[in-house]
Design goal:
Blueprint: H1 2-14, H2 26-39, E1 46-51, E2 57-62, H3 65-68, H4 75-87, E3 95-101, H5 105-113, E4 118-123, E5 148-150, H6 155-169
Parallel strand pairs: 3-4, 4-5
Antiparallel strand pairs: 1-2, 1-3
Helix pairs in contact: 2-6
The structure holds zinc ion.
Zinc ion binds at residues 74, 76, 103-104, 106-107.
């Protein structure tokens, strides 16, 4: 039985049938970071910063507000800081940020200051978001760089993570 299975797999491989690959898309990596944050007792938000042209992941982070006792330790800020530090440059105009939740106003400002090319986010956040809700930071006249914004990427999974986290805490 075992050898038969192995033979079938081998034949499939030879015929060039698509092999099942793990999902390593940036939003999947951000969701993984959000899950790790939840396991550590943090609000489950994850962010991944990617070099647009090569797809290279420069930084990945989950929220660390509780762990660092730092109200500004949002996943987006941590990922931007890490990537800018890695590059030794305060601006990353050739980079895209993937985050599981609509960024707050603070993170939207940081995204603008970093001159990021694109922002991809998962769930919309009517309570705390600052991109499509509240401050709508990128739409203000005081905002001098507006990234392209794509919301609702893997929205359901990102939202379920958050809902699950807050349900368990109640
Ligand atoms: Zn934030």
């Amino acid at each position: 039985m075992q050898s038969c299975k192995a033979l079938t797999a081998c034949l499939r491989f030879r015929q060039g049938a698509p092999m099942r690959k793990p999902d390593e898309s940036p939003m999947q990596l951000a969701l993984d970071a959000a899950r790790r944050a939840a396991a550590a007792g943090e609000v489950p938000v994850g962010a991944v910063l990617v070099e647009a042209e090569t797809g290279a992941v420069l930084a990945s982070a989950g929220n660390r507000v509780e762990a660092d006792a730092d109200p500004t330790a949002h996943a987006e800020l941590l990922a931007i800081r890490a990537a800018a530090g890695l590059r030794g440059e305060p601006r990353l105009p050739d980079c895209d940020l993937y985050v599981t939740l609509e960024p707050c106003a603070m993170c939207a400002a940081a995204i603008s200051f970093a001159r990021l090319r694109r922002l991809y986010f998962g769930a919309y956040d009517p309570k705390g978001g600052g991109v499509e809700h509240g401050a709508r930071f990128f739409h203000q006249p005081t905002c001098h760089h507006r990234p392209e914004v794509y919301g609702g990427i893997r929205e359901q999974e990102a939202g379920d993570l958050l809902a699950e986290f807050f349900r368990a805490r109640r």
